[in-house]
Please model this.
Amino acid sequence: MTHLPERLLAGYRNFMAGRYSAESGRYRSLAKDGQSPQTMVIACCDSRAAPETIFDSGPGELFVVRNVANLVPPYAPDGQHHGTSAALEFAVQSLKVKSIVVMGHGRCGGIGAALNPSAEPLSPGDFIGKWMGLVAPAAEALSGNQMTDAERQTALERISIRYQVANLRSFPCVKILEDKGRLTLHGAWFDISNGELWVMNPETGDFERPPLD
Ligand SMILES: [Zn+2]
Model:
C-alpha cells in the first residue's frame, strides 16, 4: 500500500483536529452553497510565498492560481491549452471576483532563470526557458547595466509584475469590467526574508509599503 509522505499525513491530522474542527460549519456551507471568493491571486509556485498564508485567508476567500514566476500569458484565443487563462476566465466570468492581485516575491527562481538562462535546459522540453520567455525582453533590457545581481533580480521581479498586470488587460473581459469599475487590478511583491509586502502604486507603478495600522 502506498502512503502519502508522513509529514503530509501528520499535517492533515492536525488540520482535522484544529482548523477543520473549528471551521467545519464554514466548510459545510461552502460545500452546500458554493464558493464566492472576492479576490483572485496569481502567485508563484514557490513554496515560501503561499498567498493563503501571507493573507491569512480561510476557506473560500481566495481564488488562487500559481505558476512559475506568477506570469499572465497575454490573451491568445488560439485553441491551445492555457491553464492560467482558464482560471482567469472562471474567476472573472463565473465567480465575478472584484479584485485580481498579481503577487511576485523576492529570490524568485523563475525570474533568476530569465536573467541567467542556462545553456543546458533542465529537460529536453525546456519548459522553464520557454515559459520565462514571456519576460525575456525585460530581462535583456536589464543586462549590462550597473546593477548588482541582487538589484537586477529585484528589479525584474517588480517590472514583471507590472507586465503581468498589463497582460491581464489584454483579456477583453478583464478590460471591460475594469473600465466599468467592477474589477480592480493590483500588483504586490513579497519579501520572503522579512515578510514585507510591497504594493504597486497604480498611478506610478512604484512599489510601496502599505500602512499597516
Ligand atoms: Zn517565484
Notes: The CA atoms of residues 73 and 167 lie 7 Å apart. The mean pLDDT is 96.
